[in-house]
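Quick start: what a row looks like.
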Amino acid sequence: MKIDMEAIQKNKAEETKGPGYATMQTQKTAKAETTGAGRGIFVDFSGQNAGIGAYGREKEDFADQLEKAAQTDASLTQDYMLVCANTMSAEDYQKMTREGVKPGKIEPAESVTIMDHIKEVMARSGTVIEGFNAEGNLDPEKLAELTGSAADAARITRALEKRDLPVEEQTVKDMAEQLASLDRIDAMTDGMKQYLLENKMAPTPDNLYLARFSATGQMAGGGGYFADDLAGYVGKNAGENEIEALGSQADKVIEEAGLTVDEDSRNLCAFLLRGDLTLTPENILSLQNLEKITFPPDHEKVIEYMADAVAQGKQAKDADLSGTGTYSEAARIKEEVEAVSEEALESVLSSGASFTIRSLSYAQRQIELSNYKVASGNQIRESEAFAQAQNVLSRVRLSMSISANRRLLELGYSIEDMELPLLAEDLESMEQTADRTWNLAPADPEQAALLTETMTKREELFSMPAALLGGIKDDFGKLSLTGIHEMGKPLQETLKKAGESYETLMTQPRADLGDKITDAFSNIDELLKAQGLPETEDNRRAVRILAYNKMEVNTENVEAVRLADSTVTGLLKKMNPAATLQMIRDGVNPLEESVEELDAYFERQELTVEETGEQMGRFLYHLEQTGGISKEEKDAFIGIYRLLHQIKKGDGRAIGAVVGSKSELTMSNLLTAARTINSGGIEATVDDSFGGMNGSLENSISEQIFGYYQKKAAELTKNVTPQFLSEMGEDLSYTLDELFDAQVIEETKTAEEYAKEMASEMRSAYKAPEDAISLLLESGLTASADNLQAAEKMIHSRGEAFRMLRKLSGERNRKEEDTAEDLLDEMLALPLSHMEDAKDLQSAYDSFTGQAGRLLEESMMAGEGSRLDIKAMTLCSKQLSLMNSMSKKESYEIPAVIDGQLTAVSVSFQKGDAAKAGAQIRIELSEKRLIQVSFRIKDDVLSGIIGTNDKDLSESLRDKTEEFKGKYLAKTGKRSDISIIYSENLTPGIEPARGGSEGSPKELYSASGLLIESLRSIN
């Protein structure tokens, strides 16, 4: 997994400089940085520069690293997409959604970062990743068939699963093909080494195969001379005497490479000189790496290296078989730390060597070679220094993971040469920050600091006493999270000093504490009955909170605490790292805004058509997998789900109606209220005077009840399952309270299967064709999975979204027996009828997509739509969202009936002054019939070219062009000069808008609209 994909880009460029070049640079850096202090580059992952100056170290500015990571060029984005496509597992998807992250909405770089954290936490906890064979439908027999070897199939499976990678057919096939090509190489010849070094090629399976069958077995040689411009010694027919005479000059190059001057390193120099290869540190290290590769290949090692390449978003053929890849380096360092013995620790302390991984590893190797034994009378192990060193080593081992090492290596951190006390501190700091922020690090250092501080306070609030809610029950809505945190801290410290256990805001009590709570509040149900309140878990907790604060248990106080509890804890649940980062990017300060304002922010984020479709799709998936239910039961479950959605979408008006009528909040009463409201029988149940949460002492009990149930009902829509509803019965007499108490979110087998399917869809989305990626990037939009799916559909299924809207509108009209003129025609005509200027068209587009979204949502919640229907509507909504975003860039998808068929006409405007401004129009009448138009304004005359790849169509275009010229002259009073061309080479696609400083002239908008109107009747 990659955090800084810029490092990949850099390494790609460096591959042309010869294998091992990047390793040499690292070693040179390490050597330079460890001179004297023995310390590597320190990166502050918190964004707060905590601990500057500790141990006298200097830190690299993390903002510089983040600025590089924030680059968004196409190649970089595609690298991130490739990592997502290769590595997103069901566990990743499940964890993201469970924590409130929207996998389809985030950028590929953020997705990679979040997955990296999930995998690291799994590794730290010892979680075994299983189930990928099932996910990819690859059983052992299929794997053996693909690889030709049951042993290799097992190795590939283990290697991919170890990196939390899906075992997909194409991946396995690619790895098997590379193994087969390597098996055809009988030995690593000198000629192969020379070929690779001369051509500056990394030792990948592809390059090794090419070297073996392109190079001769023997080397060509030459004499030798120094050349400053070549930065080294060039060999030319060098004999042994000449090599030996080179002496100190060769030794200097060896030392620059970070190697010890010995027989082995001098032999490397001799090889280079004999082969006419430049004697440089880079080539010495590259050759040293090539020496590690042997044939026949060790399949176990090769598979590990290929799996490492796949994890980095590369292909199996691009794996570095010398073992210098980031994953291999990270794993090697972790293994070396684990292997350090007490004898090695003692040896380093005795010699006074620097206390680093490199020194400890060297000592360990010497011990293994010489059967090291403790000298008699050595007291080091009894010293305090030895105990402290053991403690530091243990801290490093606990905090170090392969994933953490990889991130550090990719950021230039010299892990092996860092003093261990500093390394332990940095790893622990990075681990804590990663747990709070999922490693999401915005380029803006102020945003990074705010994210970290918010997540730290959120985490601390989780464990604060629930009792603090009693003190803020009447004004919690006006408080900020910082204010609540400041109020809770002293209470927490007081309870800790007194040695008292306490119930926390977010976490479940320990078993023994739960027993104590039960014993201490044994009469709690009697208290609730006396107040006429339901005996629910939320009410019991509210009574306990009142008791902690020695407050009277009455209806008003219980309702006030219950509302404060559900609002504050619900808010903290929503504020996961990704959601909080987006909040910060939207200009909302999560530590300064009030609870009421933060809650309102999240409410606004949750009301999208796509999310409605995705939630219902999940519910229907569970329903389809549930056996033993009748059609009547199925219809009833869908009806209950829609009722819950209606309650949420209607701002709780149904709840307000039932509460206002003093009736019990049963599902039956809620259904009646919802139907009455929809039929117009209740004009206003919850008005301004009714309120909602305003955090003031004037809140009525009804307002508190309303606020509480509104929030809880919204949670049900996300979590309700058919299995859950089947346990509640069919008569709808159960209450919302009973639903809340019975609700248990379980990771069932069905949920796991659903996660596998969705993860597979996400991986497919990230494999979008190049034209879809280009459309997004050139339009300045993020290449999120949702956008990629929408762009691909929009380009390759022209106008399908508009045709679906027509179909759904027709179904609604037939169901309601509506004989009036279809309103959809008016809606679809909106964009084309407002092509006057950017402002007018964008306003019309907003109206169009808004109406279309409402139609989609109504259709989702009506009729007997299957899960596939809901998925199709959800994808249609994603396309509409993308179209609306593109319209802000003056790039539009205009619905129009051309040649009798409803399709999408792509119109994009190039901004700039009158001389540079232009318009591009593309109309696809079929897969093979295309019209392309280019307009410019020159000398106050509209000049344009209309091209087509259909010869017969070009004749029709001439007539339509004359019609267009007349319309344009009548509307603008200006001439137009239009040429018609025919070319078989025109290809379908979208021409995105281009940047500029000024708006597009109105004439271009008018011309585009008039031309589309003229072409509507073409055939």
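That is the whole record. The CA atoms of residues 615 and 834 lie 35 Å apart. The mean pLDDT is 77.
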